[in-house]
User: Fold this.
Amino acid sequence: MRIAPLLFCGWLCLQPNFLVAAQVLQLTADTDRNGQLESAKDDQDEETWTNSHGAVVLVNCDDDDRDGNRDFEDEAINGAEDRLDLAPLLLESLADLPADSRVTVSLQAPTEKAFLHVPEDQAFRCIPAGESWEFAASELGTEGIEFFVEAAAIADKEWDGSILVAAKLLDNTSAESGDEVRLRVAPLVAVPSIAPATHIFVREFPGRNEALLTGLKSVAKESNSELVIIPGGGPYADNHIWLQDAVEFFYSQTPRSRIDVALPANRNQAVDMFASDRLLGPGFGFVRVGTYREKFALGEGGVSWIDWYGNLEVTPPVEDHPWGRLLYGIDREHEAQLNPEVVATLAAQGLQEPLALDVGWLVIKHADEMLAFVPSSDPKIPFYVLVPDTTLALDLLANLQKSGKGDLPLFGTYEKDVTVDSLLAEAGFAESNRKLQVERIDPMIDSLVAGLKLDPSQIVRLPALFNGGGLSRMPNMVNCLVANGHLAMADPNGPLVDGEDAFQRDVRQRLAKLPVTIHFVDDQQYHRWSGNVHCATNALRKPIADEWWNAAKPADDK
Assistant:
């Protein structure tokens, strides 16, 4: 007999528990990010995740037991420090369960990217994604069972870093009989140059860079940072001296722990692992992103430097981006850019949206040749940006010429018989530099101002000169090391006026309003090889502020 729809509806409405089982299991994770598991508070929207809500877990890429392997490569929890790098979960029973019932817990994530660590025989057993942990429901007892989630990878363009943990009472197909919680891998966060520097790295190049090392020792001492000199010789090739290009430093943080994370470049050079070789241990790890592309990373001309990490920078916090923006270079004429896989992976971190800048006019094609971020003491202006300006340099030389000082020599360390007069008289030199400023450098500055929503007053122009093709003719002072209010800049080797380098004097005047101390250092070996101080060095820095999730805005919640 067919039941009338109204009668059927009325009968169902009178049976609110029909075919609906009460929830009997509860999973708790630190969804409110206060570092504690609190069932009453954390059991809210536990299946959703945003930048400001939801449980997070570190990529466990440090080495707490100092065995030379990253912790996620071990199938064990490596002591109390390592446990802090994992995300704890608590599984509890909300009702009396049948004596013969069993519970299963599973983790959904890409293979080899996440694991469960579950208690077994007074230790922990590692269970990969795709497999389940099954046990008698009676083991939950009255206090439940705590276990851990471990991440072995960061988010990328294929995976948002999401990890779903599900607990279920066996033989009960009703979803309400179990519980689920969603975690995500904490993002990598790059640290800008205005952040406190703890370590400055440089490579020893015996017989070639002693003067630079001497200058950097002074900078490190005055800036209260540690100078780490990577010895010459093995295991790295002698001429692999570009430490900025070898690695980019990030950090990753949860309410329980923070680790520094190195991102080695894809250059097929052993020195790319210098930071990981020396620092891998508790609180310091590394991840690999991208693959070697010979055309863009070989380092022998054309676009073969564009994948090096001098072409990857990060801004201080700006409007709409409280953790700054990543900057990288592109060369549209040659269809080249920083490794797209690297850019996509960093974009997938969700905090520091990458911004592309035109580096096609440069020989080396690195963003760090075009800009540097320096601190400010004005609360209304959070930082300044140093950029090159060829017009300034040409006008400075022209004024010297007009004042009868055209015979002053310059660039004597690198070239013979160059004077103010002879340089300005070189066929096409001044014209090409002015054209370069108008057609390539100024549009790059405009892109930077628009992309970061800067006040134009934040741009500080420094004198610079380039040969045809974008090779720096004079040492590039924009390519500098910033360390705790100290700037290590290339000695510009300009004309001496009353015993003072005219370019140095001009820069000191332009930066006089900033809370910085300038150190002009001898980096001549690097300049001869088309780089300067920033290219030669690297720095490990503390975050400007912790708890990235507290700076997340609703618009950023994805």
